[in-house]
């Protein structure tokens, strides 16, 4: 339930006049983020421009619902996952691919930031919530 600020810091909430941050293990989050970023850098080079442009067109199409765009993004991520080395967990590969695609789409058409971010967040929550929880738990141990 934390909000991520544009500078990377979590927002706090006031409780009894004091700034209160929910307890999180920031080191765990940083470790996971670093691992995902490293994988993302590798995937970034593999994603062809036509894939990104196709997704951009879907996001620009105002007639498509959020669900339709999310389904299309899911199909694209699954297709891209087929080209990923088989030694990587499929869920991790799909999670990173979704984030890399989001970055590439927003870099291509910055005005789509809000729509792309919300769609990706919904997609990740639907598809990877349990995986993310397991990943955090595994690093804490």
Automatic annotation (TrEMBL):
<dbReference type="GO" id="GO:0005741">
    <property type="term" value="C:mitochondrial outer membrane"/>
</dbReference>
<dbReference type="GO" id="GO:0008637">
    <property type="term" value="P:apoptotic mitochondrial changes"/>
</dbReference>
<protein>
    <recommendedName>
        <fullName>BH3-interacting domain death agonist</fullName>
    </recommendedName>
</protein>
<keyword id="KW-1000">Mitochondrion outer membrane</keyword>
<keyword id="KW-0963">Cytoplasm</keyword>
<dbReference type="GO" id="GO:0090200">
    <property type="term" value="P:positive regulation of release of cytochrome c from mitochondria"/>
</dbReference>
<feature type="region of interest" description="Disordered">
    <location>
        <begin position="1"/>
        <end position="21"/>
    </location>
</feature>
<dbReference type="GO" id="GO:0005829">
    <property type="term" value="C:cytosol"/>
</dbReference>
<keyword id="KW-0053">Apoptosis</keyword>
<dbReference type="InterPro" id="IPR036834">
    <property type="entry name" value="Bcl-2-like_sf"/>
</dbReference>
<dbReference type="GO" id="GO:2001244">
    <property type="term" value="P:positive regulation of intrinsic apoptotic signaling pathway"/>
</dbReference>
<dbReference type="Pfam" id="PF06393">
    <property type="entry name" value="BID"/>
</dbReference>
<keyword id="KW-0496">Mitochondrion</keyword>
<dbReference type="InterPro" id="IPR010479">
    <property type="entry name" value="BID"/>
</dbReference>
<dbReference type="GO" id="GO:2001238">
    <property type="term" value="P:positive regulation of extrinsic apoptotic signaling pathway"/>
</dbReference>
<keyword id="KW-0472">Membrane</keyword>
């Amino acid at each position: 339930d934390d909000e991520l600020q544009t500078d990377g810091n979590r927002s706090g909430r006031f409780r009894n006049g004091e700034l209160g941050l929910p307890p999180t293990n920031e080191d765990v989050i940083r470790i996971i983020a670093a691992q995902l970023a490293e994988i993302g850098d590798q995937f970034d080079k593999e994603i062809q421009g036509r894939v990104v442009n196709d997704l951009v067109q879907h996001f620009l199409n105002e007639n498509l619902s959020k669900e339709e765009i999310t389904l299309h993004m899911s199909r694209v991520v699954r297709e891209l996952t087929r080209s990923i080395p088989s030694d990587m967990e499929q869920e991790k590969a799909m999670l990173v691919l979704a984030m890399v695609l989001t970055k590439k789409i927003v870099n291509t058409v910055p005005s789509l930031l809000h729509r792309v971010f919300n769609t990706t967040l919904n997609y990740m929550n639907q598809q990877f919530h349990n995986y993310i929880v397991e990943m955090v738990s595994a690093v804490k141990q």
